[in-house]
Design brief:
By secondary structure, this protein is α+β, with helices and mostly antiparallel strands. The chain has three helices and five strands.
Length: 103
């Protein structure tokens, strides 16, 4: 088994990263989207997500938040983005938290 190295990496923990995000549905209802910290893994309370049988469910509401950078930040050093020096996210200005990440 290969050795793992733990490296400290910063992630945005501001409100534009985790949510909740309110996204209007095509039926006039509003759905709520959340993301897991430091990932693109989202969850939504719409029927398409809730009743999905997929191992990796998604829906158009999650995709909508992910593809609109004014709504969603999701910044993290692990994706090769510039590191922070003052503890603020370089993308949205929100707070960051450092976690040990295995490489």
């Amino acid at each position: 088994m290969p050795d793992l190295t733990l490296i400290p990496m910063a992630y945005c923990t501001g409100p534009k990263t985790l949510g909740p995000f309110k996204v209007p549905g095509s039926n006039g209802k509003t759905y709520t989207v959340y993301f897991r910290r430091g990932t693109w893994e989202g969850a939504c309370d719409c029927p398409a997500f809730v009743y999905s049988k997929s191992a990796e469910p998604t829906c158009k509401h999650i995709v909508r938040v992910q593809t609109h950078p004014d709504d969603y930040c999701g910044w993290g050093e692990q994706w090769g983005e510039a590191p922070v020096e003052d503890g603020t996210c370089p993308r949205c200005g929100g707070p960051t938290t450092t976690y040990l990440t295995a490489t």
